[in-house]
């Protein structure tokens, strides 16, 4: 036995010497880092392990029955009563599978979920609470039942208290939905979440990473940042995730950086004109009682004051009626003729004045007779000679011409 013990000890010394040489060689090769000197290698921690994976909770893993009962209740609006009554059998069947009991109270308008002796998952009561919350916010049952799965969560975003102006709130909520719901569909495809806009809340259902993006998009939309900017960013991230070279690098250089432009220029404050400063303060303005004392109205009786006020009122009415009469009569006054020229202009020179007074009948006869004589003379060939040859006597009468042999 002694020989065997000695041999074992010799072997341990030899192995220990070899291990010491190897560790010394490794220490010489890699410099020591003081912050990581106490860290040890983890051979079980490899790259193929998904650290974010949630393993399903099985009934065998439960230690036993719960010591106390847990319950949650939520109210629902009146317009959801008919739908919940039709669907409640399916809700109860789905919750009984996981050991949760559900009640629908139509009198109070509430839904309640609570644990039972068959409940084995301690977190499933919170999932059941989220289920009844989604049903009360107009989410259909087919989508709401997904919240009971592992890796699927819900987020109810309150948007009613972000804006005070009702019209602005409605416009921005409609902007989130988009024309024919296209913006909402794009958000659902890029985030892998179901999004439901109802009243003052937005209900989202999906993976945790997608819910975070949905909340950011919704809150920014209500703060006047259009969802299209976030949609573009998510599309670029999706394409970059497909590239294995850029998978583990920073994507800041590829992502768009949008600057906020404020087109409303700030109004410059108006500069008040400097008032003339004086050494002495302004004299005090007289009070209403002081003015009444000066005019003597203060010492009159109430009846006399009422008579004076009535007189002033009547005078004001008379003035107003006179003004209205003048305005009505102004419509019947003929306008002045401004088109009559008072001066005769020839070749841009003033020749003489034209009388604006109406002419008499005799003057008009003479005027037209002279005009007729001028016209006949011009038609005959001009002048007195032409009238002699033709034999016309210009005396206002027409005579036969004398023939000469």
Q: Could you explain the architecture of this structure?
A:
44% of the residues lie in helices and 11% in strands. It has twelve helices and eight strands. It has helices at residues 2-29, 81-96, 124-136, 141-144, 166-177, 182-191, 208-222, 227-242, 288-295, 302-330, 361-380, 383-390; strands at 71-75, 100-105, 110-115, 153-158, 194-198, 201-206, 343-346, 349-353.
Question: What descriptive keywords fit this protein?
Answer:
405 residues; single chain; 3-stranded antiparallel sheet; mainly alpha; disordered C terminus; 8 strands
Structural class: mainly alpha
Helix-strand pattern, N to C?
HEHEEHHEHHEEHHHHEEHH
Rg (CA only): 53 Å
- Strand composition percent: 5-15%
- Mean pLDDT, to the nearest integer, reads 80
Helix percentage range: 40-55%
How far from one another are the termini? Answer: 196 Å
Brief overview, please?
By secondary structure, the protein is mainly α. The protein has twelve helices and eight strands.
Helix and strand topology:
Elements: H1 2-29, E1 71-75, H2 81-96, E2 100-105, E3 110-115, H3 124-136, H4 141-144, E4 153-158, H5 166-177, H6 182-191, E5 194-198, E6 201-206, H7 208-222, H8 227-242, H9 288-295, H10 302-330, E7 343-346, E8 349-353, H11 361-380, H12 383-390
Antiparallel strand pairs: 1-3, 2-3, 4-6, 5-6, 7-8
Helix pairs in contact: 6-8
């Amino acid at each position: 036995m002694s020989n065997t013990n000695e041999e074992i000890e010799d072997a341990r010394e030899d192995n220990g010497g070899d291990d010491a040489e190897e560790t010394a060689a490794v220490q010489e090769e890699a410099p020591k880092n003081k912050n990581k000197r106490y860290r040890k290698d983890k051979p079980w921690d490899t790259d193929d392990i998904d650290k974010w994976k949630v393993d399903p909770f099985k009934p065998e893993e439960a230690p036993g029955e719960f010591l106390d009962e847990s319950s949650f209740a939520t109210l629902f609006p009146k317009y959801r009563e008919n739908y919940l009554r039709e669907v409640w059998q399916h809700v109860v069947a789905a919750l009984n599978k996981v050991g949760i009991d559900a009640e629908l109270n139509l009198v109070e308008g509430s839904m309640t979920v609570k644990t039972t002796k068959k409940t084995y998952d301690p977190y499933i009561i919170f999932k059941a609470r989220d289920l009844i919350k989604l049903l009360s916010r107009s989410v259909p049952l087919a989508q709401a039942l997904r919240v009971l799965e592992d890796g699927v969560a819900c987020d109810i975003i309150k948007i009613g208290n972000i804006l005070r102006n009702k019209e602005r709130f409605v416009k921005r909520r409609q902007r989130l939905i988009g024309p024919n719901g296209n913006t909402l569909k794009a958000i659902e495809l890029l985030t892998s979440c179901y999004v439901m806009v109802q009243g003052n809340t937005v209900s989202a259902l999906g993976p945790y990473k997608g819910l975070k993006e949905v909340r950011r998009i919704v809150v920014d939309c209500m703060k006047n940042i259009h969802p299209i900017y976030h949609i573009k960013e998510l599309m670029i991230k999706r394409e970059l995730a497909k590239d294995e070279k850029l998978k583990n690098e920073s994507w800041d250089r590829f992502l768009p950086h949008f600057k906020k432009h404020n087109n409303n220029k700030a109004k410059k404050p108006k500069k008040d004109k400097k008032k003339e400063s004086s050494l002495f303060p302004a004299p005090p303005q007289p009070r209403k009682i002081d003015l009444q004392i000066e005019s003597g109205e203060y010492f009159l009786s109430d009846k006399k004051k009422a008579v004076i006020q009535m007189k002033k009122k009547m005078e004001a009415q008379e003035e107003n009626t006179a003004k209205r009469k003048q305005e009505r009569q102004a419509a019947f006054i003929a306008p002045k003729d401004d088109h009559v020229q008072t001066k005769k202009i020839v070749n841009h020179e003033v020749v003489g004045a034209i009388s604006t007074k109406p002419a008499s009948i005799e003057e008009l006869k003479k005027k037209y007779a002279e005009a007729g004589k001028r016209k006949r003379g011009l038609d005959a060939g001009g002048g007195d000679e032409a009238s002699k040859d033709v034999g016309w006597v210009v005396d206002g009468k027409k005579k036969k011409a004398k023939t000469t042999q």
